[in-house]
Amino acid sequence: MLSNLSSLDQQTEVNQHQKMSDHTNSSILKGIQNGDRHIIKKFYKKNLPVLKKYILRNSGNEDDAHDVFQDALLILLQKPALSLDRTQYSIHSYFFGICKNLWRKKLRENKKLISSPTFLEDIPYQGNDLISEIHYIEKQQLYLTHFRRLNPSNQRVLHLFFSGKTMREIANTMGYTEAYVRKKKFEIKKKLLSMIEKDPKYSKLFPSSHKVEVA
């Protein structure tokens, strides 16, 4: 009986790995965006250990690895799903590239990494898109820095909004009226934009003719 259960568990695991490998980049990303627990679990299981190993080898610890993983995941989730199917890399390689860039940038800021031409040598972005992708990540880091300075309630309102929830759904989740949510979201966005625009890094990342927008 136990051997049968063990065999069944092993076969289930094989089937799950096969299911994950059969997914396209966009379907994996959509699964994460939609809260598919199976896909999310497999994504963590496949990518977090690799990231931990990399960061532990490069002046970091496990807490750093978890922080970088979460930051990279937030950046990844804002990418259009279909755009990932146009790259020659798997979503896992693409994600790891984001993680490595985030960590190396942090080390440079902490003066633990000497700047060199090889800084981005193995990050899997394609050709002419490399610079724009780096700028994209830096802008997202600026946003994340100030997003974390909002109180938990305000963060949750924006998180629900960015997740595609309607004003009514957010109101029901948070226990507010729909009118209050609309007003609250406007005020939070205004506050967040103000904090971002006051950051010294803002003028370097955004030309004077462009204003940062939070959807």
TrEMBL record:
Alphabetically ordered keywords of this record: DNA-binding, Sigma factor, Transcription, Transcription regulation
Biased composition (Polar residues): 1-28
Residue stretches making up the RNA polymerase sigma-70 region domain: 43-111
One GO BP: DNA-templated transcription initiation
SUPFAM superfamilies: Sigma2 domain of RNA polymerase sigma factors (SSF88946), Sigma3 and sigma4 domains of RNA polymerase sigma factors (SSF88659)
Cited Gene3D superfamilies: 1.10.1740.10, Winged helix-like DNA-binding domain superfamily/Winged helix DNA-binding domain (1.10.10.10)
Region Disordered: start-end pairs: 1-29
Listed InterPro entries: RNA_pol_sigma-70-like, RNA_pol_sigma-70_dom, RNA_pol_sigma70_r2, RNA_pol_sigma_r2, RNA_pol_sigma_r3/r4-like, WH-like_DNA-bd_sf
GO terms for MF: DNA binding; sigma factor activity
Record flagged with keyword DNA-binding: yes
Family: Belongs to the sigma-70 factor family. ECF subfamily.
Name of the protein this chain belongs to: RNA polymerase sigma factor, sigma-70 family
Organism: Aquimarina spongiae
